[in-house]
Amino acid sequence: MRAMDVMTANVITVTPETSIHDLAELLCEHGISGAPVVDAANQLIGIVSEGDLLHRAELGTERHAKRRRVRWLDHLASDRDLARDYLKSHARTVGDVMTRAVITIAETASLDEIADLLETNRIRRVPVVRDGELIGIVSRANLVRALAAAKPEPSAADLDDFTIREALLTELRGKQWAKVWAVDIMVRDKVVHLWCADDQPLEERHAIRVAAENTPGVERVEEHVMHVPIDPGI
What value does the mean pLDDT take over residues 204-225? Predict the structure, then answer.
């Protein structure tokens, strides 16, 4: 699936001239946490979110940073930060608080690319643009909805135990975390039996179990934990 398959096309947007009060009302009215900022030609020029509205003079939540003057460079940096904080808390229009360096994607971006982008940059949404023009937006909620709409593959009732076991081994092969020998996996009547050591990390054991559960034809997974004796010579 691509961005075009899951994006919200009718995007709620604002302009740089939109007032902060109107922006707050818009976010509340539509139940959204942010909005792209566009110009008269619908060209994306920024993005604004509820995070930009947290520290406001009207609420008494503006930042009160402590000034530290060790060197003159520190002094300049501190002044810039204080000026930026004042702007965020007192500005009247979106143009003064929006983020201008916006991360964007093309409509052909894959969902795994989008997920990595959202996670790596710790953002909630990413605008979709075509030649600079805003055509949609993909949020974390869009990905969750895509997951909800995805239907699991139907179980392959006609697969035999040998085929099921080979499919599972193929899935695990090459996975660095899949520390399991082929002899530790057995399939009987479409039930996968997994033997694992009690000192194996739970995350690895759970991941192997999930791989088995997702293998076509599997009806149930049973784990068998083996105690690993401690060598007294160590």
Answer: 93
What are the extents of the domains in the chain? 3-149, 161-226
Q: Which of 199, 197, 198, 189 is nearest to 221 (CA)?
A: 189
Q: What is the pLDDT of residue 68?
A: 47
Give the right CATH number for 161-226 from 3.30.300.130, 3.30.1390.20, 3.10.620.30, 3.40.50.150.
3.30.300.130
Give the N- to C-terminal CA distance of the chain in Å, as an integer. Answer: 53
User: In CATH terms, are 3-149 and 161-226 the same topology?
Assistant: no
Mean per-residue pLDDT, 60-79: 62
| Residue range 73-131, pLDDT digits in tens | 555 557 778 888 888 899 999 999 999 999 999 999 999 999 999 999 999 999 999 99
Measured at the alpha carbon of residue 121, what is the angle toward residues 89 and 138, in degrees to the nearest 5? 90
Alpha helices in the chain, H assignment, sequence order: 3-6, 20-30, 72-90, 111-121, 140-149, 161-172, 202-213
Asked if 169 and 198 count as a contact pair (C-beta separation under 8 A), the reply is: no
Question: Considering only the top CATH level, what class is 3-149?
Answer: alpha beta
Give the Cα separation of 148 and 8 in Å (integer): 16
Integer Cα distance of 118 and 140 in angstroms: 8
Q: What is the pLDDT of residues 164-177, one digit of tens each?
A: 999 999 999 989 89
